[in-house]
Design goal:
2 copies of one chain form a homodimer.
Chain A: E1 7-9, H1 19-22, E2 35-39, H2 40-53, E3 57-65, H3 73-76, E4 85-88, H4 90-97, E5 105-111, H5 117-122, E6 128-133, H6 139-151, E7 156-159, H7 169-174, H8 178-181, E8 184-186, H9 190-199, E9 203-207, E10 213-214, E11 223-228, H10 237-240, E12 244-247, H11 259-273
Parallel strand pairs in A: 1-4, 3-4, 6-7, 6-11, 7-8, 9-11, 9-12, 10-12
Antiparallel strand pairs in A: 2-5, 3-5
Chain lengths: 277, 277
């Protein structure tokens, strides 16, 4: 840690240098454009790691509660010198952010999306496992899908255009930082996504309670994309009829699984069968 | 449906006949004692079914938004005549309940707990699958565990004394009504729970990232209880060392699974291997 010279004191909640954090109140920033808010030590760690590892993220600024400075030193050692680190007292931070939910550690990150979906796919290894998320509009669910993708070592998550933003604050939090660790890419409509995946050698597997094969009997090939749809509607019938479909065996007559849980079960099975875990 | 005579009009939000619903504002009722609030059509349906099926629940009263009456008729046909059905306009209902989140369908239910944990266990079939939840303090997670228990046809959920209430409003909602469909019982401390389960012929399986066997290799016997602990701490070491422990295979170095997701994966595998789904 390079001493006190690193820290920039903020005494005015309206200081324009921390305006992005103030905008959290209105959710102006969160989930809009490519900038996002990272909260808490685990998520900031993920952002610092992601920035060091590749060029997917830029860490733009950090805002710390003054009593969190000491415990954050080892993490700041890996933050580039050009990234400002602002420090404020509790009153200023609460007034700026608008509530006391910030855990004392905040950062603004910027996502640098892949140049295109094809560019994203071209960088994947020969043996690859993806989750393809379609129409997931709930931040808990998208966060849960990323968390599972991280736990089971998936190579990425691809999102159709109607999925919500995995970099929305709650989604990042629920993902326990995996939204910053697991590479992801937007991929247009479901049909466009399926077409590109297929052209890139992926077996696209539709997860559906009406799937024609059981997950237990699934024997994955070298490149697998697990397609998971919304909980209410599921995947569109015209998409499913062109795909291999798998059902996660369940007791008859019961309600369906939560989509994030379904992704976890299918990822675990695929990762085991592919010898990845 | 027995016509308009069934419905009792409420015009005053402070009417004492709907006081339990008004208490939702302060969470006085929700999760205290054995009474609970059921919200929405799916959950009321589960409560009506549960009441008809066995004596685990009593449906005490229903409160409907006036424009939901027509669509609820088929459900009310199965409600005992002694259960009052109150009807109110939107202004009265919003003022009584305190917010506009009630979906227009509310009920007060009462849980009739088993006489004892042993009494609960004695009623289970010879081949049985349980989830044993320990220290789950998050309502999303307890709701998710019940949802998974329902989907995979578990015979019940047993809860140590430190688990939160599965009949808390949010837990019921997240469970999609499974908290009312899947039998459950409190079981004292974890050690007491494990002892009773073992005495009743259950193989108690501790789910842990440090488990000695893999879930893939798990060959369940006739009676299985899957023990799931808190996400932060996990299961206590002195409990784990006396149990068969299973780890859900995952990529090295990643964070752990969410506990509800872990329960879903383990339940699916157990239910498949036990020939239950």
């Amino acid at each position: 840690m390079d001493g006190q010279g690193r820290f920039i004191r903020i005494d005015d909640p309206a200081d324009p240098r921390i305006a992005e954090f103030t905008a959290m109140r209105d959710r102006d920033l969160a989930g809009r454009g490519d900038r996002f808010i990272a909260e808490g030590r685990v998520v900031l760690q993920a952002l610092v790691d992601a920035q060091a590892g590749d060029a997917r993220f830029v860490l733009e600024k950090i805002l710390l509660l003054e009593n969190r400075v000491e415990g954050t030193g080892d993490l700041l050692d890996h933050v580039e010198p050009g990234c400002p680190v602002y420090v404020a007292g509790r009153d200023v931070l609460d007034a700026a952010v608008g509530f006391a939910m910030h855990r004392g550690i905040l950062a603004v990150g910027r996502h640098v999306p892949p140049a295109s979906f094809d560019a994203f796919l071209s960088r994947l290894p020969d043996r690859a496992l993806l989750v393809a998320a379609c129409g997931i509009s709930n931040h808990d669910n998208i966060g849960g899908i990323f968390r599972n993708a991280g736990v089971f070592g998936a190579d990425g998550v691809v999102l159709d255009s109607s999925c919500c933003d995995p970099l929305y604050r709650k989604a990042i939090r629920v993902s326990v930082g995996a939204a910053l660790r697991v590479p992801f890419c937007r991929a247009g409509s479901i049909a466009e996504m399926v077409r590109s995946l297929t052209l890139n050698g992926f077996e696209v597997i539709g997860l559906s309670p009406q799937g024609s094969q059981t997950l237990s009997a699934f024997e994955p090939g070298r490149r697998v994309a697990l397609l998971a749809g919304t909980e209410g509607e599921g995947l569109p019938a015209d998409i499913l009829e062109r795909l291999t479909t798998l059902r996660i065996e369940q007791a008859p007559g019961m309600d369906s699984l939560n989509v994030a849980t379904a992704s976890g079960i299918a990822l675990w099975q695929a990762a085991c069968r592919m010898g990845r875990v």
